[in-house]
Design brief:
Elements: E1 2-5, H1 13-24, H2 33-40, E2 51-57, E3 60-69, E4 80-87, H3 96-110, E5 115-120, E6 134-141, E7 144-152
Antiparallel strand pairs: 1-2, 2-3, 3-4, 5-7, 6-7
Length: about 160
C-alpha cells in the first residue's frame, strides 16, 4: 500500500465523492456527487491545509483522510482537524485507516500544527486512542452523538 496526496491522484476525486455522499451525505441537505467533487477540489494541495491523503493498492484508491480547517462550527477556536477518514469496506481490517492517520499526523507536524482534532461516531474512540488521541467531550452534532478528540502533534 502506498500513501499519496489527492493532488497527485486527481482521478480519485469521483470515487471519494461517491464514498463521502454514501457515508455522510444524509447529514447535509442538498448534498450531491457533483457538489462533493467541487468541494474536494479545495483539497488539491501538497504543502498546506486543506489536503487529503489517499491509500492506494496499485492503481486503486482504497482509503482517504483529510487534514482540514474547522470541521465543527461549535469549536471555532479549534483550527486543524482530521476528517473524512474512510476505507472501502473490502479493505477494512488491515490497518489502512491507522496508516493514513499516522501519515496525516506526520504532515501536520511538518506544517508546524500543534494540535489536531477529530470527531468520531465511535463513542469509545475506535482506533484513535491507540494512535495517541485523547477524548475531550461527547456532543450531539448535526443530530449525531460524537466524541471529540485531540492529538498534540508537536511535543
Amino acid at each position: 500500500m502506498n500513501l499519496v496526496l489527492l493532488a497527485d491522484h486527481q482521478a480519485s476525486l469521483s470515487k471519494i465523492a461517491r464514498w463521502y455522499c454514501e457515508e455522510w451525505g444524509h447529514l447535509r441537505e442538498g448534498t450531491s456527487h457533483e457538489k462533493m467533487i467541487k468541494n474536494l477540489h479545495s483539497y488539491l494541495n501538497k504543502d498546506k491545509v486543506p489536503l487529503m491523503v489517499l491509500a492506494m493498492e496499485g492503481a486503486e484508491t482504497v482509503g482517504v483522510a483529510q487534514l482540514k480547517f474547522r470541521e465543527m462550527d461549535i469549536y471555532p477556536e479549534k483550527e486543524h482537524w482530521l476528517g473524512g477518514v474512510f476505507v472501502s469496506p473490502e479493505h477494512r481490517g488491515n490497518k489502512t485507516a491507522s496508516k493514513i492517520v499516522v501519515k496525516i499526523l506526520a504532515i501536520a507536524a511538518s506544517l508546524n500544527i500543534e494540535y489536531l482534532y477529530l470527531q468520531t461516531e465511535k463513542l469509545n474512540g475506535g482506533l484513535y486512542p491507540q494512535l495517541g488521541w485523547k477524548p475531550l467531550e461527547q456532543v450531539n452534532y448535526d443530530g449525531v452523538d460524537v466524541l471529540v478528540m485531540e492529538n498534540k502533534v508537536l511535543t
